[in-house]
């Protein structure tokens, strides 16, 4: 991603309906794991891989001590100055931590940026403590591929069965829960991207060219947030959506 885009994404993470709704869905899901006694409510050691401009590390800090790592050196420096967070410059495919180090390892929309996604998942699993969790999100369905994915340097979009295959290479853990999300808006987003691809709208935008530029804070932004955030109540009842724009995947290490 271009350096100027990180400045743009710093604001988007804190204001755009998709980021804010994802934050709520993930925060509520983690809170539910704690309520159920699956995660400790004290001294939780959390690794946030690919923290980007830093908002995800800020809200994860509600649950424990967060260690943040980001691949792009400029983004590390920019996010550290903006947030005051200590961010390690490093790669998901070569995490600078010992085996069995963390209670919760998070990678929110990160794995799709890595060509060797199998190695990325292997590293996430390696640094997770026995009996602890990996929680990731990734974009779903190659039919939704657009200029947004190109600009964000994605290698692919996934189906749940493909994520299962990434995690099921050896018998070292099991899936806790998986679901698609951002499902209620799937059809309008699908058609928006098809039209955007046909008209090459992404290339015509002045900023990053991502879909996130299409909506600005305002009434529509709040409505879309509420629609997507509503899915949190469904997910926390362990009800799985059969399709969606993104995937949430939770895995536990033996």
From TrEMBL:
Instruction: Quote the Pfam families the UniProt record gives.
Output: Methyltransf_11
Q: Please, one GO biological process term?
A: methylation
Q: Where is the Methyltransferase type domain?
A: 47-135
Q: Is Methyltransferase included in the keywords of this UniProt record?
A: yes
Q: Does the keyword Iron-sulfur apply?
A: no
**Keywords annotated in UniProt:** Methyltransferase, S-adenosyl-L-methionine, Transferase
Q: Name one GO molecular function term.
A: 3-demethylubiquinol 3-O-methyltransferase activity
- The EC number(s) given in the record are 2.1.1.222, 2.1.1.64
The highest taxon in the source lineage is Bacteria
Q: Any transmembrane segments, and where?
A: none
Q: Which enzyme type, at the first EC level?
A: transferase
What is this protein's name?
Class I SAM-dependent methyltransferase
Q: Report the source organism.
A: Flavobacterium ardleyense
């Amino acid at each position: 991603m271009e350096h100027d885009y990180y400045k743009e994404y710093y604001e988007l993470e804190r204001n755009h309906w998709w980021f804010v709704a994802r934050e709520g869905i993930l925060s509520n899901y983690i809170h539910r794991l704690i309520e159920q006694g699956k995660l400790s409510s004290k001294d939780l050691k959390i690794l946030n891989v690919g923290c980007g401009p830093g908002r995800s590390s800020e809200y994860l800090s509600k649950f424990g001590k967060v260690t943040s790592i980001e691949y792009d050196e400029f983004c590390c420096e920019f996010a550290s100055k903006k947030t005051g967070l200590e961010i390690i410059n490093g790669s998901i495919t070569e995490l600078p931590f010992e085996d069995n180090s963390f209670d919760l390892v998070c990678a929110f929309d990160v794995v799709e940026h890595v060509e060797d996604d199998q190695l990325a998942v292997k590293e996430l699993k390696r640094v997770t403590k026995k009996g602890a969790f990996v929680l990731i999100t990734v974009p779903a369905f190659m039919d939704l591929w657009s200029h947004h994915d190109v600009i964000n340097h994605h290698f692919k979009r996934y189906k749940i069965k493909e994520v299962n295959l990434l995690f099921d290479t050896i018998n070292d853990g099991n899936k806790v829960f998986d679901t698609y999300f951002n499902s209620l808006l799937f059809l309008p987003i699908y058609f928006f991207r098809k039209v955007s691809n046909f008209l090459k709208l992404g290339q015509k935008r002045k900023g990053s060219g991502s879909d996130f530029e299409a909506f600005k804070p305002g009434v529509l932004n709040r409505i879309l947030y509420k629609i997507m955030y509503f899915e949190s109540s469904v997910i926390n009842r362990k009800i799985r959506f059969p399709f969606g724009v993104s995937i949430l995947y939770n895995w536990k290490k033996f």
